[in-house]
Structures are given as structure tokens and as C-alpha cells.
Amino acid sequence: MLKLFTPNYYIHCFQVLRPEFLLEKGIKVLVCDIDNTLVPHDVALPSPQVKEFIKSFQEVGIQIVFISNNVEERVAKFANGLNATYYYFAMKPLPFKYHKMLKKFKVKRSEVAMLGDQLMTDILGANIMKFYTILTAQVVERDLSFTKINRIFENMVFSLLKKTGKLVKGEYDE
User: Fold this and answer.
1) Burial category of 56 from C-beta neighbours within 10 Å (exposed 0-12, middle 13-18, buried 19 and up)
2) DSSP letter at 110?
3) What b-and-e string marks burial along 75-95, b requiring 16 or more CB atoms within 10 Å of the CB?
């Protein structure tokens, strides 16, 4: 059961992830959560660092997809001009939008990586789909109110992962 919450790779910041690392793993699509993965939830537009990050993957042929549980207006505004597909109100960890994405891009599950900041939504959903999972630390500590509830359960899972030696919060792979 804990395996579903365990990422394949754990990083302190999205910027340390390199396209070459994913290419070596055969990844063709990088699915990115937005809120608190790339920018704080209350920042509407991508930073120059996010734009550079996205561009670096696109330049080597890795497709970028944004997937968020947030509303269309927020996700569309963020994705505008980034040449990336996006899915809003994804209901992560449920698999509906992931299946839609696989169909659109005609890729195998083994060719998809998920980058996110939450065990309970991003990592769980992507592990259910058997994607390569990358957990990043939160961009900032502040969260939306419903995310704060998820963080309570997430901390319980982190505690169990630590006890079993699978993952220690703050001990990154990079």
C-alpha cells in the first residue's frame, strides 16, 4: 500500500530536474502539477524560471502537460503561451484525465513522468497509472485550505514511509 505513495525520485525544487535525466528513462511526456510545484497557488503566471524549465524539455522533444485540480480559468491563464496541453479540475488522484492524456499523446504509461508536490494527489494518482513519479518539495509553505487537509494525511504517510525506510521528508535524491 505504501508503494502507491512512494515517488521514484525526490527533489527539492523543479529546477534540478534535467531533460537528459528523463530522456535516459525513455520519457516522452512530462506531466506537471502547477500549484506549489512550479509556482505558489496564488501566483497566476509562470515565472521566468518556469518558462526556461518548460522550454528546456520541449527543446529535446519532451511534451509538457499541465494537470491541476484547480479551475479552468487559473490553469488556462498559467498555460497560455507555453505551448503545452493542460487539464483542469483533474480530480487527482483519480485516473480520468490521465487516460484522456494517454489517448491524446499516444504514449505508453512507461513513457510518462509526473512532477508534483503532493503524495496524496500527484504521486498517488501517477503511481496508480504506473507513471514515473517525481516528488518535489513545496514551492512555499502556504496552501489552499483543502490542501491543508491533504497535508495532514500526507504527513502521516511521510511518517510511515520513514518508519519503513522508503522515504524521509527532506532527504532528496539529487
Assistant:
1) middle
2) G
3) beebbeebebbbbbebebbeb
- Contact indicator for 11, 174 with CB cutoff of 8 Å: yes
**Look-up of cell digits 518539495:** 137
- Residue 71's CB is within 10 A of a number of other CB atoms, namely 10
Predicted TM-score (pTM) of this structure: 0.93
Beta bridge partners of 39: 35
What type of residue sits at position 148? K
At position 142, the amino acid (one-letter code) is R
Per-residue pLDDT of 136-170, as tens digits, reads 998 987 666 667 777 788 888 888 889 998 989 88
CA–CA distance, 127 with 82 (Å, rounded to integer): 26
Q: Which amino acid is located at 65 in the chain? A: V
Residue 52 is placed in which grid cell?
Answer: 526556461
The end-to-end CA distance of the chain, in Å, is 25
